[in-house]
Structure formats: structure tokens, C-alpha cells
């Protein structure tokens, strides 16, 4: 009997696959922990996570009861004083950090400056700071500033070449500062391998987890990471301007000599001493008064992860990104797109980026149709997948809309050519 020809995937077969994958989704119930607007497919949770359902009531309580009624008593009565370390521990559970090593507060840029400089101070006499030429801009700018302050040469070495440089010039390297996920292409680097290469050279490693925390399993303690920071408003969905976090491994805390010696990190903050004496443990990584309304929102947002196994989350995230690539292969073929994100699951974070010369107007036209992604100059369309609230049906819908826009030329309309301040 002749073998029947392999059917080319059509949107009907893709729809069947999406339905089957969604029916088998063990995390489907978690979507109800988010308040998503009707008719929107939100693929920008890697820039600003969607609103968790637990947040509005927590913020309402923080404003009216805690601030409005309890007033200053809230520092003791409502746990305000402990909030940075308590929330840090909640984040620690998602990034493989045992309690007492993570503090929440300030922005990623501030946490990065504080911990990167402290890391470099732990390796005096070594003159090199390695960082990625493709690192997020703030990470490169702050590495340069730390370099100027401490007299270090900042050398930009791509993540995939860092192990070789560490092997060759290791004794000169103080710190290697990298991100596990490339914020543009979503490429995932091997954290354990780079950490081991840094340690073999006697250097320290500093990880920026902005695109990893809450998106995939991170094992800071298990791989022996030294320092890390991450964002509260991306996958963790803590809200606009949510506090960031910093990780200082237990073994470095006693020597942790950071530049931002604020009074909340003092051993006895209310002794009001004129001389700084660092608190023991992670508390010394605290800086000053935290933005409590935002911190309370972040703490409430993290409850969306209750009972969620990070391995199951990773499996769903890979299923969503893999399905997006499959849909793009069949629906966008020949329409001028190239895939910027690796196809091997082990090399993919939780986003997919496509290159297209018309990236900006395409994203604008998609947004007008309720499919929200973003673009990164010059030609990347970037789609982030938060597996807590997205479905495979959402993925197919998004790619289908993109196909419809390109084939109809809807993105060529004048209204989609104007670039706003924030892309
Ligand atoms: C999002 C992001 C930041 C943002 O820093 P902010 O201080 O919050 O503005 C920094 N680094 C990386 C790698 C990021 O992805």
C-alpha cells in the first residue's frame, strides 16, 4: 500500500494540536490567578507581567488599613520592617536560593551596582571584569561604572566565549557578570557551566536573572552562584516599577562590603549611630526605606506561584515557545521572517523573537488587534511567554493575526508608522 503523503500543517491541524495541548495542561487552572483583559493575548509578560488577581485587595489593604489606619504602627504591626527579607525569601524559592540570601527592594540597576561592586571588592588584585557585549544596556553601563570606580578593565566577551577567556586569563578575572537569557533573542546560556568556569579560575560570577526569575527553574545554590539580581515586574508580575531583588550567597555575606551602606542594613538601625556597622546575614544587603506599597504588591503577586512546580512551568513554557515556532514555520513561511531564537529546548528561555525588516509597524498592527508583544531595534519582534497564564490557543491566535497582517499589508497603514517613546 502506498504511504499517504504527509499532510502539510494547516491552521486546522494546528488548532487541533493547540486544543489537545491545552486540554492536557496541568497548569491551566493557574490562569485564574490573573486578571487578563478580554480579547487580549498578552505576550509581553517578559517586560511587564500581567496583573495577578491577589494584588488589588492587597494594595487596597495596604493603603486603607495599613497606611490609613495603622499609620506608623504598621512597621511593627503589619510586618513592614521584615518585608524586604520576607519577600526575598519568597523569590528565593523560585530561583533555588535557601532562605536568608535574597533581599527585595530598589531597582535592578541599583541592586546590580551594589552587588557587582561588592563582588569585585572580594577579588582584589584582579584587573578584569567580564561582561557580555549583548547584555542589557543598564548592565553594561553599570559594569563600566564599577570598572571606573575600582580601576578594573571591563572586557566584553560573549557568553559562549567566556569559558575560554576564563581558562586563558582566569587569574586576572575578578568577576564574570552575565545573564542566563539573552533579553533580545531569548537564547539560554548554561549557568552551571559558566559558574564552574569562573570558579575554576578563582573568579566570582554575577548573574542577572531578569529574564529567568519566575520563567524557568534557576538553581542558584546548587550551581554555587555567588551573586545575582533580578527584576520584580517581568515574569514575577509584581507590577510597574516593582522592587527588584539581590542574592548574596551565604558564604559571602560576612565579607559582603557593598557601596550602598544605608541605615536599613545596619546592625542596629535604631541605635542611630554615626558609624556604619553591618547587620549579620542578608540584612546587610538592605539599603534604605523600601517602596512598601510596591513591595506589598510584589509579595501578593508571588502567591500566583503557590503549588506551581518550576519543572512543570518549564515544560509548559517550552511547549508554548516550541508551538509558537511550529506555528511560525507553517503560517509565516515565505513572508520575510527569520527565527532569532534557538530551536533546541535547552537553549531557549521563555520568549521567541522573530526578525523582520518591518518589525515596528508589525508590532503596532498586532497591538491594535489585541496581540501584545514588543520590538527591539532594529528588526526584532519579541514575544514573551508566561506559562502561568498563556494557552496554546493564544499562541496560534497570535501567529494567525501576524500572518493576516503581513499578507494583507495592514501594517503599512500610516497609524502604525509612528514610533512612541517606549517600544
Ligand atoms: C529589564 C532588565 C533590567 C531593568 O533594569 P531596571 O533598573 O529595572 O530598569 C536590567 N537588566 C536586565 C538584564 C533586564 O532584562
Overview of the molecule:
The chain is an alpha/beta fold and 423 residues long. The protein has two domains: 9-33 and 309-416, Alpha-Beta Complex (Aspartate Aminotransferase, domain 1); 55-305, Aspartate Aminotransferase, domain 2 (3-Layer(aba) Sandwich), CATH 3.40.640.10. It contains 14 helices and 15 strands. Helix 9 links the parallel strand 8 (204-208) and strand 9. The chain is globular. The model has no long low-confidence stretch (mean pLDDT 96). Pyridoxal-5'-phosphate (PLP) is lined by residues 107-109, 136, 138-139, 179, 183, 208, 210-211, 231, 244.
List keywords for this structure.
7-stranded mixed sheet; binds pyridoxal-5'-phosphate; 4-stranded antiparallel sheet; Aspartate Aminotransferase, domain 2; 13% strand; 14 helices; Aspartate Aminotransferase, domain 1; 423 residues; 2 domains; alpha/beta
Number of strands: 15
List the ligand species. pyridoxal-5'-phosphate
Largest sheet: 7 strands, mixed
Number of domains: 2
Shape estimate = globular
Span between termini? 56 Å
Average pLDDT, to the nearest integer?
96
Radius of gyration, in Å, reads 23 Å
Q: Which segments are poorly predicted (pLDDT under 50) over 5 or more consecutive residues?
A: none
Number of helices: 14
Question: Mind sketching the topology for me?
Answer:
Blueprint: H1 11-23, E1 34-35, E2 41-42, E3 51-52, H2 55-70, H3 74-77, H4 83-94, E4 102-104, H5 108-121, E5 128-131, H6 137-150, E6 153-156, H7 159-169, E7 173-178, H8 191-200, E8 204-208, H9 220-223, E9 227-230, E10 245-248, H10 250-253, H11 292-301, H12 310-331, E11 338-339, E12 351-355, H13 359-368, E13 371-372, E14 374-376, E15 380-384, H14 392-408
Parallel strand pairs: 2-13, 5-6, 5-7, 7-8, 8-9
Antiparallel strand pairs: 1-3, 4-10, 9-10, 11-12, 12-15, 14-15
Helix pairs in contact: 1-12, 1-14, 2-11, 4-11, 5-6, 7-8, 12-14
This protein binds pyridoxal-5'-phosphate (PLP).
Pyridoxal-5'-phosphate is lined by residues 107-109, 136, 138-139, 179, 183, 208, 210-211, 231, 244.
Amino acid at each position: 500500500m502506498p504511504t499517504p503523503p504527509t499532510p502539510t500543517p494547516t491552521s486546522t491541524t494546528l488548532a487541533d494540536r493547540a486544543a489537545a495541548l491545552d486540554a492536557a495542561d496541568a497548569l491551566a487552572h493557574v490562569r485564574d490567578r490573573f486578571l487578563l483583559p478580554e480579547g487580549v493575548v498578552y505576550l509581553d509578560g517578559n517586560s511587564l507581567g500581567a496583573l495577578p488577581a491577589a494584588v488589588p485587595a492587597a494594595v487596597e489593604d495596604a493603603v486603607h488599613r495599613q497606611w490609613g489606619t495603622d499609620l506608623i504602627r504598621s512597621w511593627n504591626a503589619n510586618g513592614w520592617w521584615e518585608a524586604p527579607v520576607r519577600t526575598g525569601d519568597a523569590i528565593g524559592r523560585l530561583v533555588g536560593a535557601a532562605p536568608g540570601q535574597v533581599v527585595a527592594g530598589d531597582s535592578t540597576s541599583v541592586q546590580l551596582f551594589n552587588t557587582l561592586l561588592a563582588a569585585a571588592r572580594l577579588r582584589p588584585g584582579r584587573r578584569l571584569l567580564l561582561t557580555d557585549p549583548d547584555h542589557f544596556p543598564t548592565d553594561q553601563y553599570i559594569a563600566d561604572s564599577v570598572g571606573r570606580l575600582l580601576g578594573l578593565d571591563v572586557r566584553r566577551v560573549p557568553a559562549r566565549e567566556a569559558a575560554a577567556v576564563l581558562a586563558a586569563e582566569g587569574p586576572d578575572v575578578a568577576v564574570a557578570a552575565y545573564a542566563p537569557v539573552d533579553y533580545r533573542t531569548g537564547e539560554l546560556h548554561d549557568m552551571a557551566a559558566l559558574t564552574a568556569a569562573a570558579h575554576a579560575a578563582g573568579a566570582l560570577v554575577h548573574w542577572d536573572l531578569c529574564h529567568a526569575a519566575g520563567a524557568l527553574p534557576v538553581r542558584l545554590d546548587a550551581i554555587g552562584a555567588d551573586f545575582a539580581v533580578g527584576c520584580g515586574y517581568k515574569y514575577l508580575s509584581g507590577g510597574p516599577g516593582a522592587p527588584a531583588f539581590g542574592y548574596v550567597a551565604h558564604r559571602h555575606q560576612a565579607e559582603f562590603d557593598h557601596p550602598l551602606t544605608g541605615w536599613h542594613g545596619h546592625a542596629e538601625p535604631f541605635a542611630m549611630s554615626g558609624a556604619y556597622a553591618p547587620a549579620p546575614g542578608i540584612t546587610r544587603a538592605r539599603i534604605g526605606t523600601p517602596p512598601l506599597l510596591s513591595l506589598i504588591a510584589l509579595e501578593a503577586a508571588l502567591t500566583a506561584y503557590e503549588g506551581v512546580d518550576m519543572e512543570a512551568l518549564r515544560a509548559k513554557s517550552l511547549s508554548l515557545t516550541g508551538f509558537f515556532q511550529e506555528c511560525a514555520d507553517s503560517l509565516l513561511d515565505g513572508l520575510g521572517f527569520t527565527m532569532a531564537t534557538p530551536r533546541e529546548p535547552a537553549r531557549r528561555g521563555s520568549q521567541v523573537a522573530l526578525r523582520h525588516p518591518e518589525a515596528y509597524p508589525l508590532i503596532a498592527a498586532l497591538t491594535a488587534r489585541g496581540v501584545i508583544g514588543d520590538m527591539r531595534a532594529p528588526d526584532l519582534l519579541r514575544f514573551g511567554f508566561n506559562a502561568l497564564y498563556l494557552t496554546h490557543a493564544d499562541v496560534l491566535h497570535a501567529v494567525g493575526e501576524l500572518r493576516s497582517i503581513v499578507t494583507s499589508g495592514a501594517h503599512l497603514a500610516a497609524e502604525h508608522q509612528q514610533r512612541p517613546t517606549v517600544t
